[in-house]
């Protein structure tokens, strides 16, 4: 069993990683006498009873949301508030997010808002949510005009990552999670990128020991960055590598068509190619990035049919855009990402024109 903290002073919390981490840690992390488990229709039949069985000493209830990014919106969020109010759960209640990134983001946001803020616990069940969205306190929902546009920073009480939950994960979801794992290697951890290349086949075959190591290294990387910059005024922006292009793909296609990790994979490849066009990254490094994404079975190219204008319009609505300038996370090398805002905007348009027409 692995345990370490996200170090945020009074808001610090532990991440537990391993097999069977729910039973020893869940009940102790709840301070009140009520708890609402929020999950979705795919996860509920697999894990809901297991979680509720640890809470028999409390007054509990559960909400089962429809699955998928297309339901990550204010309408679905309201069903969580409805249940909390119908059951008269007070401000000492704890919300438990049991599921992937969509469930985690919505439950965290509900916890941030309900009675001006209640406790919540993350039990992420997909690889993507285990290595990224369950850590760091970003919560929220999508708006038709932009991904995660309505949200709050709200840190959980703890993150319980049960690696056994990955055994039932559909291969497409697993690959999508690997996109966020690869991201940490690209941002600032070249040895991790090389380790992923070396152990790729065993990781894709589901070797649980290697997976636990990949999850730990990813979460430690994220925890370090979040501890330096909780509310993304600086270095945390690096965690958005591939996300500005990726969010445009998700919104442009319609939420739920591509998984978030698939859009991030194509977005990271686009960031690498744009870095090459600007003379920042050499061709060999771009090929290494593309080779690992392709080998993992992730999309490298954006979906056909999205135009330069659609990309530019959605990217300029991104939260990282300032006064019309689209800030991008680019690469100087594998393991050396940086925030770039001073590239010529005509270069981005040229890049998109060329890249989209080369498909
Ligand atoms: N997923 C990016 C972040 O948590 O900052």
Q: Could you characterize what this model shows?
A:
By secondary structure, the protein is an alpha/beta fold. The chain has two domains: 2-168, Rossmann fold (3-Layer(aba) Sandwich); 171-357, Dehydroquinate synthase-like, alpha domain, CATH 1.20.1090. It has 14 helices and eleven strands. The strands form four sheets. It has a four-stranded parallel β-sheet with strand order 4-3-5-6, with helices on both faces. A three-stranded mixed β-sheet has the order 1-2-9, covered by helices on one side. Helix 10 (243-253) crosses helix 11. The protein starts with a strand and ends with a helix. The mean pLDDT is 95. Bound molecules: glycine (GLY). Glycine binds at residues 132, 136, 138, 236, 239-240.
Strand content: 15-25%
Specify the overall morphology. globular
N- and C-termini, Cα separation: 45 Å
Low-pLDDT runs of 5+ residues are none
Largest sheet: 4 strands, parallel
| Total helical segments | 14
Order of helices and strands: EEHEHEHEHEHEEEHHHHHHHHEEH
Q: List all distinct small molecules, including ions and cofactors, that are bound in this structure.
A: glycine
Helix content: 40-55%
CATH superfamily placement of the largest domain: Dehydroquinate synthase-like - alpha domain
Average pLDDT level: 95
E-strand count: 11
Structural class: alpha/beta
Strand order of the largest sheet: 4-3-5-6
Q: Into how many domains do the coordinates divide?
A: 2
Per the CATH scheme, the topology name of the largest domain is Dehydroquinate synthase-like, alpha domain
**Radius of gyration, whole Å:** 20 Å
Oligomer: single chain
Q: What is the CATH C level class of the largest domain, in words?
A: Mainly Alpha
Just name the CATH architecture of the largest domain.
Answer: Up-down Bundle
């Amino acid at each position: 069993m692995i345990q370490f903290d996200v170090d945020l002073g009074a808001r610090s919390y532990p991440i537990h990683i391993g097999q069977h981490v729910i039973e020893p840690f869940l009940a102790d992390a709840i301070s009140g006498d009520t708890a609402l488990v929020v999950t979705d229709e795919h996860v509920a039949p697999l894990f809901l009873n297991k979680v509720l069985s640890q809470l028999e000493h409390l007054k509990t209830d559960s909400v089962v949301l429809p699955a998928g990014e297309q339901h990550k919106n204010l309408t679905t969020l309201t069903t969580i508030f409805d249940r909390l109010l119908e059951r008269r759960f007070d401000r000492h209640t704890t919300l438990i997010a049991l599921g992937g990134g969509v469930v985690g983001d919505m439950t965290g946001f509900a916890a941030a808002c309900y009675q001006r803020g209640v406790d919540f616990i993350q039990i992420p069940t997909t690889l993507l949510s285990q290595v990224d969205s369950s850590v760091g306190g970003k919560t929220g929902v999508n708006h038709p005009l932009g991904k995660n546009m309505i949200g709050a920073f709200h840190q959980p009480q703890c993150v319980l990552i049960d690696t056994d939950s990955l055994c039932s994960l559909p291969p497409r979801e697993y690959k999508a999670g690997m996109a966020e794992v690869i991201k940490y290697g690209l941002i600032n951890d070249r040895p991790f990128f090389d380790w992923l290349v070396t152990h790729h086949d065993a990781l894709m075959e589901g070797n649980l020991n290697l997976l636990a190591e990949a999850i730990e290294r990813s979460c430690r990387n994220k925890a370090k960055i979040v501890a330096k910059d909780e509310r993304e005024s600086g270095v945390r922006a690096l965690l958005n590598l591939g996300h500005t292009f990726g969010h445009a793909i998700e919104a442009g296609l319609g939420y739920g068509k591509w998984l978030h990790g698939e859009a991030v994979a194509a977005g990271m490849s686009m960031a690498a190619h744009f870095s090459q066009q600007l003379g920042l990254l050499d061709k060999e490094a771009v090929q290494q990035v593309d080779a690992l994404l392709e080998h993992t079975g992730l999309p490298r190219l954006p979906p056909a049919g999205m135009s330069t204008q659609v990309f530019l319009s959605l990217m300029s609505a991104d939260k990282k855009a300032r006064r019309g300038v689209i800030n991008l996370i680019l690469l100087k090398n594998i393991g050396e990402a940086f925030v770039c805002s001073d590239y010529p905007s005509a270069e981005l348009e040229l890049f998109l024109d060329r890249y989209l027409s080369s498909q």
